[in-house]
Amino acid sequence: QVQLVESGGGLVQAGDSLRLSCAASGRTFSNYDMAWFRQAPGKEREFVAAIRISTYYSDSVKGRFTISRDNAKNTVYLQMNSLKPEDTAVYYCAASAGGVSFFRQGYDHWGQGTQVTVSS
Question: Which residue has better confidence, 100 or 12?
Fold first, then answer.
């Protein structure tokens, strides 16, 4: 089992940067595959990025976002650069013990979410 807590969201202007953090509990962090999803009002939760041995990104964030992990700190990060108003959403951290997935159903554990708002 693992518990996840996101932080680092906020209000920024278009073109600015933010770094989100996801702190995981327990000592089994390195055994999990990690991902970030996001959900805007009235829209479905969508895949953003994932990390196992390699990293994976949705086309909408490639070249702007970077996912990384620090197993010693039990933390996953999402560095977001060149933010756009369409990036506005609640960002969720997710963990899977069964491998990386691009779909919500592939993840067993979720954080509470952190709000990111990008003004135009």
Answer: 12
CA angle centred on 113, ends 81 and 48, rounded to 5°: 45
Give the residue among 70, 75, 33 at the shortest CA–CA distance from 55: 33
Task: State whether residue 33 is helix, strand or coil.
Answer: strand
Q: Do residues 36 and 91 lie in contact, with contact meaning Cβ atoms separated by under 8 Å? A: yes
- Cα separation, 21 vs 9, in Å, equals 9
Q: Is the pLDDT of residue 98 over 70?
A: yes
Please give the Cα distance from 120 to 112 (Å, whole number). Answer: 26
Cβ neighbours, 10 Å, residue 100: 17
Whether pLDDT at 107 is above 80 = yes
Say if CB 56 and CB 103 are below 8 A apart: no
In one-letter notation, the amino acid at residue 84 is K
